[in-house]
Design a protein that fits this description.
The protein has about 170 residues and is of the alpha/beta class. The protein contains eight helices and five strands. It has helices spanning about 5-20, 35-45, 50-55, 65-75, 85-90, 105-115, 135-140, 160-165, and strands at about 25, 60-65, 100-105, 120-125, 150.
Length: about 170
């Protein structure tokens, strides 16, 4: 599967889940992977007007204080971005930022995400699900038939993420 096909399928999962009224939970590493996801989601939000009514209602929460700080570091160091990102930056404003992107800093803000009944995307650390805020999102959404858990990275043997992928 190519990168474009993976992104298309990723967005199909998000939109299908939102149409069911569910939320998408994405375990992700705070450094690197989360910024890649933000970049791809930003690109999709900007280039798919046919889904605008749906996308306008769909918030993307990044629930990781470390990911928020790392994203700021990325924004301040755009000279290391690839050519495509430089071209987008010339046309757009700041990269790694779009209208429905919300970073949650405090524990209280994190808990409020799960109280909101609207469909949403939650990107939370840790990437293999053993630590961090992802655990309370998994507890909330794993049993919800309308919601989806999307793994975007390797899940090492013995981790909670691997056990979930294997169907435990």
């Amino acid at each position: 599967e190519t990168g474009a096909e993976s992104l298309r399928r990723f967005m199909e999962i998000i939109l299908e889940t939102a149409r069911r009224g569910g939320s998408v939970v994405i375990p992700s590493f705070a450094v690197g992977r989360t910024q890649e996801l933000i970049y791809e989601l930003e690109l999709y939000y900007e280039s798919h007007e046919e889904h605008m009514p749906e996308l306008d209602r769909l918030f993307v929460y990044v629930d990781s204080p470390l990911a928020e700080r790392v994203t700021e570091v990325f924004r301040r160091n755009t000279e290391f971005f690839d050519q495509e990102a430089h071209e987008r930056q010339r046309v757009d404003r700041q990269l790694l930022s779009f209208r429905n992107l919300v970073f949650t800093g405090s524990t209280e803000e994190s808990k409020l995400i799960n109280l909101d009944p609207r469909p949403k995307v939650i990107i939370a650390s840790s990437g293999m699900c053993d630590f961090g805020r992802i655990k309370h999102h998994l507890k909330r959404y794993l049993g919800d038939r309308d919601s989806s858990i999307v793994f975007v990275g390797y899940q090492a043997e013995g981790t909670l993420g691997r056990r979930i992928v294997e169907g435990d």
